[in-house]
Amino acid sequence: MPEETIFSKIISREIPSELLYQDDLVTVFRDINPVAPTHVLIVPNKLIPTIDDVEPEDEPALGRMITVAKKIAREEGIAEDGYRLIINCREHGNQEVMHIHMHLIGGRALGGMIKRPA
Questions:
Q1: C-alpha span between 72 and 23 (Å, rounded)
Q2: CATH architecture of the domain covering 6-106
Q3: Torsion angle of the four alpha carbons 49, 52, 58, 60, in this order, in degrees rounded to the nearest 10
Protein backbone atom coordinates (compact mmCIF):
# COMPACT_ATOMS: atom_id res chain seq x y z
CA MET A 1 0.00 0.00 0.00
CA PRO A 2 1.43 3.42 -0.94
CA GLU A 3 2.38 5.81 1.82
CA GLU A 4 -0.07 8.63 2.55
CA THR A 5 0.86 11.97 0.94
CA ILE A 6 0.15 15.63 1.58
CA PHE A 7 -2.44 15.34 -1.22
CA SER A 8 -4.17 12.48 0.63
CA LYS A 9 -4.46 14.78 3.63
CA ILE A 10 -5.87 17.61 1.48
CA ILE A 11 -8.40 15.19 -0.07
CA SER A 12 -9.53 14.05 3.41
CA ARG A 13 -9.48 17.70 4.57
CA GLU A 14 -6.93 17.03 7.31
CA ILE A 15 -4.87 19.85 5.79
CA PRO A 16 -6.70 23.00 4.68
CA SER A 17 -6.42 24.21 1.10
CA GLU A 18 -8.41 26.26 -1.36
CA LEU A 19 -10.64 23.50 -2.72
CA LEU A 20 -12.28 24.29 -6.05
CA TYR A 21 -13.99 20.95 -6.69
CA GLN A 22 -14.38 17.53 -5.12
CA ASP A 23 -16.40 14.46 -6.03
CA ASP A 24 -16.07 10.72 -5.44
CA LEU A 25 -13.14 10.39 -7.91
CA VAL A 26 -11.11 13.61 -7.92
CA THR A 27 -10.24 16.70 -5.88
CA VAL A 28 -9.11 20.08 -7.24
CA PHE A 29 -7.25 22.75 -5.28
CA ARG A 30 -5.00 25.75 -5.93
CA ASP A 31 -1.25 25.17 -6.07
CA ILE A 32 0.52 26.89 -3.15
CA ASN A 33 3.40 27.95 -5.47
CA PRO A 34 1.63 29.06 -8.65
CA VAL A 35 3.62 29.61 -11.85
CA ALA A 36 0.77 31.44 -13.61
CA PRO A 37 -2.38 33.38 -12.66
CA THR A 38 -4.31 30.10 -12.73
CA HIS A 39 -2.46 27.09 -11.35
CA VAL A 40 -4.53 24.32 -9.84
CA LEU A 41 -3.89 20.65 -9.12
CA ILE A 42 -6.33 17.94 -10.12
CA VAL A 43 -5.75 14.80 -8.06
CA PRO A 44 -7.42 11.38 -8.05
CA ASN A 45 -8.85 10.63 -4.62
CA LYS A 46 -7.25 7.17 -4.81
CA LEU A 47 -3.54 7.33 -4.03
CA ILE A 48 -1.76 6.26 -7.21
CA PRO A 49 1.94 7.10 -6.83
CA THR A 50 2.93 7.61 -10.51
CA ILE A 51 1.51 7.27 -14.01
CA ASP A 52 3.52 4.05 -14.21
CA ASP A 53 1.36 2.65 -11.36
CA VAL A 54 -1.96 3.19 -13.17
CA GLU A 55 -4.17 0.11 -13.56
CA PRO A 56 -7.15 -0.39 -15.90
CA GLU A 57 -9.57 0.19 -13.00
CA ASP A 58 -8.12 3.71 -12.60
CA GLU A 59 -9.37 4.85 -16.01
CA PRO A 60 -12.61 6.44 -14.69
CA ALA A 61 -10.65 8.68 -12.28
CA LEU A 62 -8.09 9.64 -14.94
CA GLY A 63 -10.84 10.47 -17.42
CA ARG A 64 -12.61 12.52 -14.77
CA MET A 65 -9.39 14.51 -14.27
CA ILE A 66 -9.63 15.65 -17.90
CA THR A 67 -13.33 16.54 -17.85
CA VAL A 68 -12.92 18.41 -14.57
CA ALA A 69 -9.92 20.28 -16.02
CA LYS A 70 -12.19 21.53 -18.80
CA LYS A 71 -14.83 22.60 -16.26
CA ILE A 72 -12.32 24.45 -14.06
CA ALA A 73 -10.65 26.14 -17.07
CA ARG A 74 -14.04 27.53 -18.07
CA GLU A 75 -14.81 28.65 -14.51
CA GLU A 76 -11.41 30.35 -14.25
CA GLY A 77 -11.97 32.17 -17.56
CA ILE A 78 -8.93 30.68 -19.31
CA ALA A 79 -10.58 28.20 -21.69
CA GLU A 80 -10.89 30.56 -24.64
CA ASP A 81 -7.25 31.71 -24.67
CA GLY A 82 -5.91 28.25 -23.80
CA TYR A 83 -4.14 26.49 -20.98
CA ARG A 84 -1.75 23.64 -20.30
CA LEU A 85 -2.28 20.30 -18.55
CA ILE A 86 0.85 18.65 -17.16
CA ILE A 87 1.39 15.30 -15.43
CA ASN A 88 4.95 14.66 -14.28
CA CYS A 89 6.26 11.15 -13.62
CA ARG A 90 9.10 10.29 -11.26
CA GLU A 91 12.47 11.98 -10.83
CA HIS A 92 13.36 12.81 -14.44
CA GLY A 93 9.81 14.05 -15.02
CA ASN A 94 10.18 16.32 -11.96
CA GLN A 95 7.37 14.70 -9.96
CA GLU A 96 7.59 16.20 -6.47
CA VAL A 97 4.70 14.42 -4.70
CA MET A 98 4.29 10.70 -5.23
CA HIS A 99 0.54 10.93 -5.82
CA ILE A 100 -0.53 11.43 -9.45
CA HIS A 101 -1.60 15.01 -10.03
CA MET A 102 -2.32 17.09 -13.06
CA HIS A 103 -1.38 20.76 -13.18
CA LEU A 104 -3.90 23.04 -14.90
CA ILE A 105 -1.99 26.20 -15.76
CA GLY A 106 -3.13 29.29 -17.64
CA GLY A 107 -4.02 32.94 -17.55
CA ARG A 108 -0.96 34.07 -19.53
CA ALA A 109 1.09 32.94 -22.53
CA LEU A 110 3.06 29.92 -21.34
CA GLY A 111 5.79 29.70 -23.98
CA GLY A 112 7.50 26.52 -25.12
CA MET A 113 7.08 23.16 -23.44
CA ILE A 114 10.62 22.39 -22.29
CA LYS A 115 14.05 23.90 -22.64
CA ARG A 116 16.03 22.37 -25.45
CA PRO A 117 19.60 21.31 -24.67
CA ALA A 118 22.25 23.82 -25.75
A1: 13
A2: 2-Layer Sandwich (3.30)
A3: 110
Pairing of strands 83-87, 38-44: unpaired
Domain residues of the chain, as ranges? 6-106
Which of these, 55, 49, 50, 42, lies nearest to 11 by C-alpha position?
A: 42
Q: What is the pTM of this model?
A: 0.92
State the Cα–Cα distance between residues 38 and 69, nearest whole angstrom.
Answer: 12
Do 36 and 108 meet the contact criterion of CB atoms below 8 Å apart? yes
In sequence order, what are the beta bridge partners of 83? 106
SS3 for 108?
coil
Residues classed as catalytic: 101
DSSP state of 93: T
Question: What digits encode the pLDDT tens for the residues 2-35?
Answer: 789 999 999 999 999 999 999 999 999 999 999 9
